[in-house]
Amino acid sequence: MSPLLLAQVALTLFVFVMLLSSAAVMVYVERKVAALLQQRLGPYLVGPKGLLQPIADVVKLMFKEELRPRAADALLFTLAPIISATAAFAAFAVVPFGAETTFFGLLDERVRLQVADVNVAVLVIFAIASMSVYGIVLAGWSANSKYSLLGGLRSSAQMISYELSYGLALATVLLVGNSLSLTDLVNRQAGTWLGFIPRWFIFVQPLGFFIYMTAGIAETNRAPFDFPEAEQELVAGYHTEYSSMSFAMFFLAEYINMVTVSAVATDLFLGGWHGPLLPESLGWIWFLIKVAALLFFYVWMRWTLPRYRYDQLMAFGWKVLLPLAVINLLVTAAGVLYFGL
Amino acid sequence: MDTPVVHHGAMFDTNELVINMGPQHPSTHGVLRVVLRLDGEKVVDADVVIGYLHRGIEKLSENRNWTQIILLTDRMDYVAAATNNVGYCETVEKLMSLEVPRRARYVRTILCELQRIASHCLWIGTHAMDIGAMTVFLYAFRERELILDLFEEFCGARLTYNSMRIGGLPLDLPPGWDRKVLEFCSVMDSKVDEYEELLTHNRIWLERTKGIGVISGKDAVALGLSGPPLRGSGVPKDVRKDEPYAAYDEMQFDVPIGTAGDTYDRYLVRLEEFRQSLRIIRQATEGIPEGPIVGKVPRLIKPAAGETYHAIESPKGELGYFIVSDGKSTNPYRFRVRPPSFCNLQGLRPLIRGHLIADVVALIGSLDVVLGEVDR
Amino acid sequence: MLSPYIPIAIFVVVATGFALFTLVFSGLLHPEKYNKVKLEPYECGIEPLTDARDRYSIRYYLVAMLFVIFDVETVFMFPWAVIFDKLLLFGLIEMLVFIFILVVGYYYAWQKGALEWV
Questions:
Q1: Is the peptide bond before B23 cis (omega within 30 degrees of 0)?
Q2: What is the pTM of this model?
């Protein structure tokens, strides 16, 4: 096996493990940040400062009885969490998280820090984001429980509604960056304007960033758009009937989706691994910082804002965000034409 | 079972989805059961089913002596137990024409108002949580805890106080208690502002509550609503003003009323009640007179034959007791409670008709029902 | 050189394998003491009166149909956006015409009440 291939396999496994642990870390961070905002302690008993809490959670879920309603469709019911988790993982495969590197001279050739360097990465992300709806819809449908069904229907309608704005926001970035490859797009954001403003697309596309993040939050079903699982209305939405590890799969998928949306936002709008002070080989540190900041923003939103009502959410998606995204696209096109970015 | 059909045109007829919300549901405030008939997200009609927490308190009371009933009243509105105690004791005092010392009346006023704040804390927490603002819940419970501490110091209990006796109080105030109450008042002032900051001008909160569950003053009266749901519709009715009990006739306070009669106005009314309650507590604590805590009460409580109705303003609305004594036995002949939650719950069905599922939980929260009191 | 899609496939296989493995592994660990009531679908402690798989509101379908129409348009915009620097004014005008047609449909759907929920 050539060292290059070996490096690729190692990288794949590494990304997989990192994604898994990022979900675990997010569970902990979510609870600790919530505790911070709510002036309480949060988990503190398991391990030092409660750091082992996510592990305890997983062990607990492992030993939980797995229930499947008698009237449920057995195949789809089992399949749904697997689809959810797989789609969540797969979306991250095309996300680059660092500059090309030789791993400190270990390799002769430079490899890119990403699982798959696809030249249509943006399209792949868009496609896989649509895939994740299946897991949720099937979960809602197969359980034959009304709360699950309502949650599943809600989420399908919500996710596909916001996917349009999500896609249009991505298209706007492509317009500015002229490429479908995330690595190329990130590299377009290197350097600065006037010596101090980083060439990040967020400064060219502030509205695009806003649309992307709003749609991204709705896509990942997070507060204030957490309708599919609005526990005060629909108990637990599409995963009402799930228990044990199949429930954990949905949980995992939600957190990994958050990480992916934040990582893509970092690559598209926040300059990816480009940043001052650090050399390019350590750019992944910048990448991590930016992703962490966006994730913190996610958690902060969740514990601060009330939830929209479903019709308001749909009205906002179709009547505000979608026209806004289209106008933004056209204005950007005109701008590119006029200024020749 | 066949479900009714909604017509969208010949090809698109769909069936209504009948769904049980409650009794085991995170936001029906206990064991309320609402059978919803849904067309998509919209509630076509609803049946409100109660009785899951029925313990027969009224019948039980007819087999207990007059003092033993006090602790049963604790179990009705268990988030505001002291108010229930006061209401019951005052009714028996009215039946027996007992004179209650002024000091006891002042302490009752303080306890009632502290209880109102504690109850409203629970309300704002759960109401906000129903609408998705989780953090307010923990903030409100932080303050409720302070009140429970005060109660614990006064009577030793934190939930079911049994804190009244017919004719006065079981115990005098612990030394320094009044100072602690005043300290609490100054803490609470800023906390109410804190809740307001999180919610009152929040766009999402406004969209979720404004124009939701509108009920006119006339309809509210017709439905027999009382308390904040009634005052939110602009009817200035408050037992504390209209028929003062305890020491309310000596207190200066305003009765806040709303205009639109929607969820937002009911929210504003309760928020203002926080402030008015603090105002009353300050006055009562500073002006608390010296003197005995129990009036002249016969050793054996045995009211003469007769009946009486007496109401007080509980945090939820008008809490009334109707008691009949036959004059022979040491227990009431008939014991009947008019619980505000039960009467306010009558408003739920007309309110939620035509709204969305998400509004159902918002409206249950805005009526602020406690199922222990509804079912008794 | 490997096709760039092979790593994605490997990644998907690893993820699916992981999901399957955890589900099976936890299946070996957890207790299984089922009874009739436990296997009822959850409906707040009440036995469900009706089957959940009934015909439900048409609005969800409407959203799905609108989505199919608009989502395909969105995908058309991707290649257009990438080569916009070559199309220039021609591309902009073309897209304006394209979006105009879209907007007509969008306006029609709006007026028909397809975007209303109550």
A1: yes
A2: 0.83
If we measure between CA atoms, which residue out of B350, B368, B349, B373 comes closest to residue B21?
A: B349
Which residues on chain C are in Cβ contact (under 8 Å) with B211? none
What is the value of ipTM here, to two decimals? 0.79
- Shortest CA distance from A313: residue in chain C: C117
Say if residue A224 is preceded by a cis peptide, omega within 30 of 0: yes
Are residues A164 and C74, on separate chains, in Cβ contact within 8 Å?
yes
Gap between the Cα atoms of B143 and B122, Å rounded: 10
Interface of A with C in 252-311 (CB under 8 A): 310-311
Query: Tokens representing B74?
Result: 């604790």
Half-sphere exposure of B113 (CA within 13 A, CB side): 30
Tens of pLDDT, residue by residue over B30-83, are 788 888 888 777 888 888 888 888 888 888 888 888 888 888 888 888 888 889
Nearest Cα residue in chain A from B142: A39
pLDDT tens, A139-193? Answer: 888 888 888 888 888 888 888 888 888 888 888 888 887 777 777 777 777 777 7
CB contacts, 8 Å: B38 with chain C:
57
Query: Rounded to whole angstroms, what are the CA distances from A230 to A223, B69, C19?
Result: 9, 41, 25
- State how far the Cα of C15 lies from the Cα of A177, in Å rounded to an integer: 31
Both tokens assigned to C19: 């999901």
Tokens linked to B251: 């207190």
A330: contact with C, CB 8 A cutoff: yes
CB contact under 8 A, A240 and C42: yes
Contact A154/B at CB under 8 A: yes
Task: Spell out a b/e string for A129-156, using b for 16 or more CB atoms within 10 Å of the CB, else e.
Answer: bbebbebbbbbbbbbbbbbbbbbbbbbb
SS3 B260: coil
CB within 8 Å: A232 and B27: yes
Please tell me the number of Cα atoms within 13 Å of B178 on its side-chain side.
Answer: 16
Chain B residues whose C-beta is within 8 A of a chain C C-beta are 1, 3, 6, 8, 12-15, 17-25, 28, 33, 38-42, 354, 356
Name all domains of chain C by residue range, CATH numbers in brackets: 6-111 (1.20.58.1610)
- The residues near A270 (Cβ < 8 Å, ≥ 6 apart) are A200, A202, A290, A294
Amino acid present at A281 = S
